[in-house]
Amino acid sequence: MPIYKLGEKPMFPSGNLAEKDGLIAFGGKITVDFIIEAYSNGIFPWYNNDEPILWWCPNPRTVFFVNEIHISKSMKKLIKSQKYKITFDTAFDKVIENCKNTRKETWINEDIIKVYSELYKLGLAHSVEVWDNNKLIGGLYGLCLGKVFFGESMFSLEPNTSKLALISLGNFLNKEDFRIIDCQVHNEHLESLGAIEIGRREFLRILREDIVKKQKFYKWIYM
Prior knowledge:
Radius of gyration: 17 Å
Mean pLDDT: 94
Oligomer: single chain
Number of helices: 7
CATH class of the largest domain: Alpha Beta
């Protein structure tokens, strides 16, 4: 398959045309319009600072079905203890900065931070925060289009706090009739929490069905 060169306008080929490794295009811009159009088609940017912007649609795709997130006995005990406070959308900038700073290598550059901050202000990007008193110790952020949540990154400064953020997100999304959280690519940490791989065609089918559904909320509130 060819790798497509993007121009000035956010126009993407079908995700089913991606290379075996998932690469489908290069070029374009990291702007709100490009991000929304890309994710609406199951495509996301992933590149290093010394590379052109690369766009991907991998096969298989790693996802959580929100009603099937695995909660271990130890996590159930932590949740029941109410040791930490959970909030949504109260410290988005701090969450994305921690996601960047807690990794030795990261795709979260200044362009990504800028565009996701803009998406947050538009009510399209969201964060989950885990607090120990007034100290932020874990969380995650991602993009929400229709009834699909595209998870971008998570972090933990204390054991299991990113897991707590994910479980809290899954519970919330399940109540709001979401079906999946997109995790993009597989890793063992996600698998341990119940993430599974599905075929790209199946993922894009779910995306077409769920991305057109309306959201009832703008700023999320943890209940």
